[in-house]
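Students often ask why we bother predicting the structure of a whole assembly rather than each chain alone. The short answer is interfaces. A chain on its own may look different once its partners are present, and contacts between molecules only exist in the joint model. In this exercise we take two input lines together and write out one structure for the complete complex. Read the inputs first and try to guess which parts will touch.
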Amino acid sequence: MSVETEIRFKLNGREVSLRVPVTMKTLEMLRDKLGMTGTKYACGEGECGACTIMIDGKTVNSCLMYAVDCDDRELVTIEGLNTPEGLHPVQQAFVDHGAVQCGFCTPGMVMQAHYLIENNPDLTRAEAQRGLEGNLCRCTGYTKVLDAVDAVAGKNTCRSRC
Amino acid sequence: MEKSATASPVAKQTLIGQRIKKPDAPDKATGKTRYINDMVLPQMLIGKVLFAGRPHARILRIDTSAAENLPGVHAVLTGKDAAGLKFGFVRDNVALKDRVRCEHDEIAAVAAETEEIARRALELIEVEYEDLPGVFTPEDGAREDAPLIREDFPGNKSLSFEFTHGDLAAAEAASDFVVDNVFRPHHVTHCCMGTSCAIADFDYNGKLTIWTQTQYPYNYKMDLAPALGIGPGDIRVIQPPVGGAFGSKLDVYPYEPIAALLAKKTGRPVKVIYSREEEFKASPTRQAAIIHMRTGCTRDGVLTFRSADALLDNGAYTSWGPTIPVIMMRTISGHYRVPVVDFKAQAIYTNNPYAGSFRGYGNVQTTYATAQQMDMLADLVDLDPLEFHLKNAQKSGEVTPQKSFLRECALTECLETAARACDYSHKRKAYAAQRDEPGRYKKGIGLASSIHNAGGAKIHKSDGIGTILKMDDYARVTVITGASEIGQGIDAVITLIVAEELGVPLEHVTIVNNDSDVAPWDVGVHASRTTFIAGNGTRRAARKAKAQILNAAEKILGEPAEELELRGGSVVRDRDGTPLIKLDRLLRQMHFQAVPELVMVTDYYEPKSEPEGAKHVSDHSAAYSHAVHIAEITVDTLTGEITVDKVTVAQDVGRVINRMGLEGQVEGGIAIGLGYALSENMRIENGRLRNACFRDYKLITAPEMPPLDLHFIESDCAEGPYGAKGISELPTIVIAPAIANALYNATGVRIFNPPMSPETVARAIHERRTQPTSDKAAIDAEGLTLKTRE
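Now the answer. The structure tokens for the assembled complex follow.
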């Protein structure tokens, strides 16, 4: 059995403390330890973006990051964007603009889109395209994803928790 | 509210052609959707598979004792546990093998309490192999002295297909121009974002429940049963949400019976899920082939014949891949008016990963050839390709040599619409004139089209669908349908049709389509059929329900049923829209009256298509459709890199049902086709896949997606729901040859061995510059016969 260690961090606004093996990746911790299955495994090698989450306001591939490195940091996953009342504007835009087909890449895509919009008030379509380069989608051809981002970008309607 | 005489009239309006949101999108966008990959059942064990990792070998010894003794391991299975349990299209596969025929052959499997234990158990299995010489191309496999991959298939011959029509020799003699090329379409794979996964569980009555990603749940039972030695009736198929399929889940693959065999052995649910690397190695491929194609025409630009002789790379086992000639030949014989046709295809067993079905199903490979040869012939005849295409385009009512009845044919309109929208003819001339001018970057424009079945394809005994529609006391509608949802959006189409027919809000429709014990039979999601077939099934069921409701309303309201309509959640007077009674109230009155009645109707819809048949002469689809793509590209002649600047699309969709879903399918289909054209390539060297990751197997990314100009031609299909045709495969089929033709326009080179990767393109440009020869220069002196170099 691998060595375990205790970590504490904030997940979607709530304090979490748990013991994790030092070899465990953040993605596994979220999915297998915490049951947060919104974040997806699709490659495990940082090449597809399906596991994108936000740590201290920056997006990362959670499959590449060790869980122990979450200690004392703030994580936001796809489950942390919406509120009980409704969808986050980026999520809603994905729904409204047909950016969701099989939806498996969607959580990671939404997280990355949210990050791009939050950090660039003048986000252009070309910048969004470039910013989503690391998020693979096999269904949509990205066009509707970019339409969704376009619809929200520059409107300053994101309610970021980060 | 009572009979609401005071309520304002409800105007007639239609949802057909509107933009409807996918009902499952909110849950998917918030991470709430529980995909099969996310599922955990109580007591569930994790199954893992030991792959051979070598392409061809005998297994001399296998020792699983150490793995069996590892704490936490519940079962270890090897070839002897699946001996004789043959499955597959020609019953040539077993879940666990006692001999290795390809790299991903499943040699052993374990079920353990955690994935980590399962992985360690695999490491403890000792296998001694004796490697055998392999066969890695269909040409090699077809040689007389080739190593035999299967004793029961002499000559390594898998399936073969043939279709001939007319006098080939006479047609050749009558041809002023003939183009003759060998095309070598390559191996690509589906790359579903959700990796392959199955969960199996047996109950103590011997019944298997399998949670799977399958896209053909009913025939799946039939195909899975022999791999387990149980009856198809003892299998219940549950289809949780899946991360894509694209044809990859149109067969049973060994991990599924492996999960079931492990579940049987352990008495517990077992989940097998692939890593991305396993997914790349063990998934089916789009079939690679060697297609020798010739097409002829007169000097006036009228097609005289098309012949094709194809060797297909079957891989080590026969899945649906080797059946693609059924569709290939429809294109050979039906892509433009071809009076004489000669088609032969032979699938050859190799030690490569084996081919399955993939969106486009043989037509991707075929159109890559036919659409380039159309372009080449136009050049030889010295006609604008648009003119050449128009000259040979079929019209409505024509019948192809295979008896595909093109009842509504909008090919001419597609050609004219796309060409006009992007100023094709003018740009083509201008770019061709600049081709040999100095300058590193060259622009090109290319036109391609194709034909595809758009109302299913009757390759089974039935191409039908069962639908059950019921309404509750609150006017909520449940549609229980065989139609599978794999992300393509049939949920939105069914919802829209129900709302259209029954006048209920979209959000009052629920679809149940994920349990074979509940929903009635359907062939599956394939052949661009689901909107067409399930759309018709849903509409028919909804109309039966509506008739029942309006007849009841006639009795209760005393107004003739034929003058009533369902709109805005009420029964209204058709002529002025006056609401007469709320629908939910009426349904309760129907339910609780002296002679009670519930609205619950059934329908089985069988399209008017003919079985494919052994001779391949039948109207096998209920509709056919065309699409035209015009690609505008920039080629970096130094690096060979192609940038696609814009794609103009004109596609005959029959009728737009859900505009947003339609656009999404076309855009996504093009993205897959772009990857096929430009970057995706399974590098299989001596049977071993060398690029089993997204870093080395390159999908199209967001910045590479060009702007698309979509034009939907509505030919109003008489058989389709509201006139609609199936749409989802043509976008993947047509784009690659459009780019290939644009590449020729820009640089004068043609690529017959896709993908048009920078390396391949740069090499071809370099060769053309060092040995300048145009198509025309290659025409041999006497007979205007062109022999283009391979």
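Check your guess against this: Residues 89-152 of chain A form a domain with the DNA polymerase; domain 1 fold (CATH 1.10.150.120).
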